Amino acid sequence: MASSSKLKYLSLGVLVLQTTSLVLTMRYSRTLKEEGPQYLASSAVVSAEVLKIITCTVLVFKDNNYSLRGMKQLLKEQIVNKPLETLKLAVPAGIYTLQNNLLYVALSNLDAATYQVTYQLKILTTAIFSVTMLGRRLGCHQWLSLLLLMTGVALVQWPTTSGEESEEKILSSSSQFVGLMAVLTACVSSGFAGVYFEKILKETKQSVWLRNIQLGLFSFVFGFIGMMVYDIQRVRESGIFQGYNRITWTVVTLQALGGLVVAVVIKYADNILKGFAASLSIILSTLISYFLLKDFTPTGLFFIGAVLVIAATFIYGYKPGNSATVKV
């Protein structure tokens, strides 16, 4: 029991570090000005899925004592011979692929502060789907912690007067609406797909890695189709890997790693705790931006919000003896 608890919080800690690195690296890669075309977001999404499939295949190979015959038999029995079970993963795979592309749309049409604040609504949607789909009962203190978390994150990411007004002038109202709809849709899809995948993982005896191979295969197909539909002209002109450099491959690697870390977190914790880890990573990203990148000046609201988020994390993890529960 103690080892399981340690593994749960270790997974959350790794997720915080991975998410922080991904956000900072991705932001840098999308703003980096170099000669030649910029890399395609759709291509990066597909590349991350390929890397995740390869990594999971290696892990399955390891779990089968490095037996190639045993791994082939396992993949045939669990994937090929169980088409209906495999097709269940098509739902979250399609939603995850849509979500990843929507986030690029959102970041292209909204300023960073608005995006980060709005995207935290995924924590609320995850909680709602956890209660309605998994029948999970949340204590009153957990609902309070969700409220504190959202309030804290909103205060941390509250836009300041310096620089924000000029940035908003650049963005047209129609562009802001597109970005807002994209991030709101991503919040709902993130909550639903995460809980749906959690339900599948906890109802099956298959390993997390095997499930991620199935998930990755569907995500690759959906992502590749999307890339061919929306970026076919640019792909014809400069290829799928146009604009790739070391930073791009770092983003792809972090995305692939993030998918596996999330799978472990879902297996040993739940999606709401995953949301808390993501929120903490935003605070850490802001601190790094201030002390290292020096492109952010913290305000009093930032410190108040940081305290609320940290307090909410501890409140959610607290387990009273006989707490009242609320079910929607």
Automatic annotation (TrEMBL):
<keyword id="KW-0813">Transport</keyword>
<keyword id="KW-0812">Transmembrane</keyword>
<protein>
    <submittedName>
        <fullName>UDP-N-acetylglucosamine transporter-like</fullName>
    </submittedName>
</protein>
<dbReference type="Pfam" id="PF04142">
    <property type="entry name" value="Nuc_sug_transp"/>
</dbReference>
<comment type="similarity">
    <text>Belongs to the nucleotide-sugar transporter family. SLC35A subfamily.</text>
</comment>
<keyword id="KW-0472">Membrane</keyword>
<dbReference type="GO" id="GO:0000139">
    <property type="term" value="C:Golgi membrane"/>
</dbReference>
<dbReference type="InterPro" id="IPR007271">
    <property type="entry name" value="Nuc_sug_transpt"/>
</dbReference>
<feature type="transmembrane region" description="Helical">
    <location>
        <begin position="299"/>
        <end position="318"/>
    </location>
</feature>
<keyword id="KW-1133">Transmembrane helix</keyword>
<keyword id="KW-0762">Sugar transport</keyword>
<feature type="transmembrane region" description="Helical">
    <location>
        <begin position="178"/>
        <end position="197"/>
    </location>
</feature>
<keyword id="KW-0333">Golgi apparatus</keyword>
<feature type="transmembrane region" description="Helical">
    <location>
        <begin position="140"/>
        <end position="158"/>
    </location>
</feature>
<feature type="transmembrane region" description="Helical">
    <location>
        <begin position="276"/>
        <end position="293"/>
    </location>
</feature>
<feature type="transmembrane region" description="Helical">
    <location>
        <begin position="209"/>
        <end position="229"/>
    </location>
</feature>
<feature type="transmembrane region" description="Helical">
    <location>
        <begin position="249"/>
        <end position="269"/>
    </location>
</feature>
<dbReference type="GO" id="GO:0015165">
    <property type="term" value="F:pyrimidine nucleotide-sugar transmembrane transporter activity"/>
</dbReference>
<feature type="transmembrane region" description="Helical">
    <location>
        <begin position="39"/>
        <end position="61"/>
    </location>
</feature>
<dbReference type="InterPro" id="IPR037185">
    <property type="entry name" value="EmrE-like"/>
</dbReference>
